[in-house]
Amino acid sequence: MTERFLDRVYDARTADETETLYDKWAASYDDEVGENGYITPDRCASALAEHMPDQSKPILDFGCGTGLSGLALRLAGFEIIDGVDLSADMLARAREKGIYRDLRQIEAGAPPIETPGSYDAICAIGVIGAGAAPIDTFDLLMNCLAPGGLFVFSFNDHALAEPENEARVTSWTEQGKAELLFKEYGDHLPGLGMKSNVYVTRKT
Q1: pLDDT (tens digit, 9 = 90+) per residue, 71-94?
Q2: How remote is the C-alpha of 162 from its chain's centroid?
């Protein structure tokens, strides 16, 4: 019987434990989330495409996993996509899809790029929240953008239940460091009755 992970992925854990869990989940991830109608990647890709008309510019898929987010981005018209993730096994699955220009494994909390502004947009689709990346990741990724850069991300119901997550976004916008271009609540994993907010921000 295939091991199931969705019933325990949202539990708190260390970065090393998260990496181990996603390594174990890599072989069955696409099937398990697909059975539950995982739609947030499509929603994020569509929202980014609406605010980034030049889809030939390079974008970074942070926490790309097995590449479902990259596939959604490619289907939305984006041409140059690089991906980074903690899990080597997830990256191996992403590589099989033939979507990405480049794929790299990164350490938790480390900047995913050396030079801010290397990408016109960064995506963190289903990445920040309970059982995954902490809210400090929002700051990390916004700091990787040059002024005018776009950041598309999502908070599922578990992440929305933690007030500090949306508060961090509000802090950036109220200080004038970012502009909120898009925010929409909708389906995330409808098979589990779970929803998510999708956001697009522009660094100012």
Answers
A1: 999 999 999 999 999 999 999 999
A2: 18
